[in-house]
Amino acid sequence: MLRRLILTDFRNHPALSLAPAPGFVVLTGENGDGKTNVLEAVSLLAPGRGLRGVRLGEVARQGGAGGFGVAATLGDGVELATGTQPAAPERRLVRIQGAAAAATALADWLTVLWLTPAMDRLFVEAAGDRRRFLDRLTLALFPAHATHATRYEAAMRARNRLLADLAAGGRPDPAWLAALEAQMAEHGAALDAGRRELVAALSERVAAVPEGVFARAGIGLAGDGAGDLAARLAAGRRRDAAAGRALDGPHRADLSVTHLGKGQAAALCSTGEQKALLLGIVLAHAELVAERRGAPPVLLLDEVAAHLDPRRRAALFERLEGRGQVWMTGTEPALFQDVSGSLLALPL
Q: Average pLDDT of the chain?
């Protein structure tokens, strides 16, 4: 959990200091007060681009110095910080206990999961959105997943550059290509294995949850996996050169979800059913992380209560009670009258 959170020139917050309690942390206020911005700041204490997935330069406050800072003290006293400097607005800096660190190292100290209104269409949007969601779930169980993803993507970008030379009539070094393909195969196999283990464990966890107000999801992983990837990449060089990208590998995997009660693909369910499926997955995953890692994740639920009827809202609060630190936002404080914890009205 977070014991203290300090924002500097982050979005609309010139300076903000919060001391959240364990359990529920509820941020209320009018639209534009910066509730979601606070959740975004917390999400940047994990590897990746946060819950909005934007460039770092967009995060710095307009009219500010040009950089931003997010600092937190965890419940065990560990201090995490991330941000940018005005001279390099797209270069992310990370410090753990005051020492410089890679962003991927954040996963060793804090697990952060989130659900936002923008994710409501996850099951009908592009496969890349579901893959990023799947990788966040996998990272929460296996912190090394971020390192494998970074190295896989770096090798793939380097291979794409060599194949662009091939497409233009050049003759890139085949040994160099083979070395990059071997790196993609090595890290791709780790990515695929982590995803598959996550899907299997999460499927078992979801199936064990009694039928209730949140729909149960059937979860699978679509794609060819990483078996013999180096050989497949070598055989597909000219095809990939013509396409301008790698057409094979775990970067093309997809998360498949079905409504177990209806035996129907999530993409064909109603908007309300899709949201219930997504919420059920996130809740089951949070419980799985707490069991596997010995500590619950920090959950960020943006405007989740406003879209639930009273029965489902009460069921959500009951299920989350005592399961770690849960940050929620809403414009109406009355929605959270049955919640105990920090109730913070913005602007502070």
A: 92
